[in-house]
């Protein structure tokens, strides 16, 4: 599965359609899309980033809305209380104990998980993903070039 983001902000997909991983709607399982197709559910959104896990995908809009679709096991789609496949993109939500997902800056998908960077209410606000990377470099531990930790 390969999500493709054009400079216009439109998202296209190609690859295996299993479990809704392309976001193109319900179809025959095990079919393959060999020519990029527009993800129709996102045609009115301007997307700034796409990410793919093993069998799911994510799209982040310019307004910070996060969409997910594909294989829905282990809640990696952030689709609320249901743990099911999504054949078309759906806005991500979290459970009632966590904040909503507006203001997302960056998303990354994995095998059966997602990592989501969201602007918080901490002391340093970030404007975009470049600022987020710069801010995180000030708080994450760093290692030396040879992999050894500093000895003092």
Brief rundown of the structure:
This protein has one helix and nine strands.
Overall description:
By secondary structure, the protein is mainly beta. It has a single domain (2-137), classed as Methylamine Dehydrogenase, Chain H (7 Propeller). Helices cover 6% and strands 34% of the residues. The chain has 1 helix and 9 strands; from the N terminus they run E-E-E-E-E-E-E-E-E-H. The protein has one helix at residues 129-137; strands spanning 2-5, 11-16, 32-38, 47-52, 56-61, 66-70, 86-91, 104-109, 114-118. The strands form 3 sheets. The chain has a 4-stranded antiparallel beta sheet, with no helix packed on it. The radius of gyration is 17 Å and the shape is globular. The N and C termini lie far apart (47 Å). 29% of the residues are buried. Mean pLDDT is 75; it is low at 132-152.
């Amino acid at each position: 599965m390969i999500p493709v983001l054009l400079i216009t902000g439109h998202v296209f997909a190609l690859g295996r359609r299993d479990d809704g991983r392309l976001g193109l709607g319900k179809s025959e399982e095990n079919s393959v899309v060999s020519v990029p197709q527009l993800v129709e559910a996102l045609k009115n959104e301007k997307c700034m980033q796409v990410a793919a896990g093993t069998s799911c995908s994510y799209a982040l809009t310019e307004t910070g809305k996060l969409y997910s679709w594909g294989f829905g096991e282990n809640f990696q789609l952030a689709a609320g209380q249901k743990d099911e496949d999504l054949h078309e993109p759906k806005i991500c939500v979290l459970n009632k104990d966590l904040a909503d997902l507006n203001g997302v800056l960056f998303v990354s998908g994995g095998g059966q998980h997602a990592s989501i960077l969201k602007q918080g209410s901490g002391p340093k606000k970030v404007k975009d993903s470049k600022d987020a990377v710069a801010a995180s470099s000030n708080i994450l531990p760093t290692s030396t070039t040879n992999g050894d930790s500093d000895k003092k």
